[in-house]
Design a protein that fits this description.
Elements lengths: L5 H6 L4 E4 L11 E5 L2 E4 L1 H20 L4 E4 L3 H11 L6 E2 L11 H20 L7 H18 L11 E5 L5 H9 L4 E5 L10 E4 L5 H62 L1
Parallel strand pairs: 4-5, 4-6, 6-7, 7-8
Antiparallel strand pairs: 1-3, 2-3
Helix pairs in contact: 2-7, 3-7, 4-5
Length: 269
């Protein structure tokens, strides 16, 4: 059974593309028809593509790796932030800083700067600063939190990137492509689906369309995380069971050794 239905996508307006004159020829296989100068997306193909993307995301989550979600456009940022927090994945909904991926060590230094500022408040260093210095530090901390706070837990490059609108996030797409990081993306009729690994042809401007597609993907990530947790619990139980068996064997071995020693002692007497 599909994670999302044709009717759900239709009700969300996911089929509405851009004006015909704005189209990208590479999106042609996913266009159903033209109506009043607007391209209509073939949602049957969208359903298949979303299922493929969801399945891949589930496997990534199951492996314990991170997926970085990127959506800086107004109608997508709040939706992405709200839903991605549910699965504790990193996300960028403010400005994409150039080099976020290709110059990752520098970005990590900026994230660590937030931690060092927080330590200043705890160890009392902050109290020895002048009012002006305090204000400057607070502003710096607020700026870092706004731009990088949501990726504070991302200690290494993500295993994949999810993007809403590859036109808007072309720098992020270019960096991920350069590093050969798989890209999942909602691709509208004005974009080239060949630029990403898992294109999902759909309206990337309507909040309902973005929300319903993201729901399917987030649910897949939840499944992957649940499977990972279940496997860990199973492994832990198996280790505990093996440990108990080993303990029992050791006890038996000790008893046998003790019996042999006693028998040998009797024979000597």
């Amino acid at each position: 059974m599909s994670r999302i239905t044709f009717q759900e996508l239709l009700d969300a307006g996911a089929h509405f593309g851009h004006l015909k004159r704005k189209w990208n020829p590479n999106i042609a296989p996913y266009i159903f028809m033209e109506r009043n100068g607007i391209h209509i997306i073939d949602l049957h193909k969208t359903v298949v593509k979303i299922d493929e993307a969801a399945s891949a995301m589930r496997q990534i989550a199951k492996s314990g790796r991170k997926i970085l979600f990127v959506a800086t456009k107004k109608q997508a940022k709040d939706i992405v932030a709200e839903k991605v927090k549910q699965v504790n994945m990193p996300y960028i909904t403010e400005r994409w800083s150039g080099g976020m991926l290709t110059n990752f060590p520098t970005i990590r230094k900026a994230v660590k700067k937030m931690t060092s500022i927080d330590k200043m408040a705890v160890d009392g260093t902050f109290n020895h600063l002048s009012k002006r210095e305090k204000l400057q530090v607070q502003r710096q901390r607020a700026k870092l939190e706004k731009n990088l706070g949501s990726i504070a837990e991302l200690t290494r490059l993500p295993a994949a990137l999810f993007v809403v609108d590859i036109q808007k996030e072309k720098i992020a797409v270019a960096e991920a492509t350069r590093l050969k990081i798989p890209i999942f993306a909602i691709v509208d009729t004005n974009s080239n689906p060949n630029l990403v690994d898992y294109p999902m042809p759909a309206n990337d401007d309507a909040s309902k369309s973005i929300s319903i597609i993201l729901d399917a993907l987030i649910n897949a990530v939840k499944e992957g995380l649940s499977e990972r947790k279940a496997e860990k619990e199973k492994d832990a139980a198996l280790k505990e069971k093996n440990s108990q068996k080993k303990g029992e064997k050791d006890k038996v071995a000790v008893k046998k050794t003790g019996a042999r020693k006693f028998s040998a002692k009797k024979e000597r007497k």
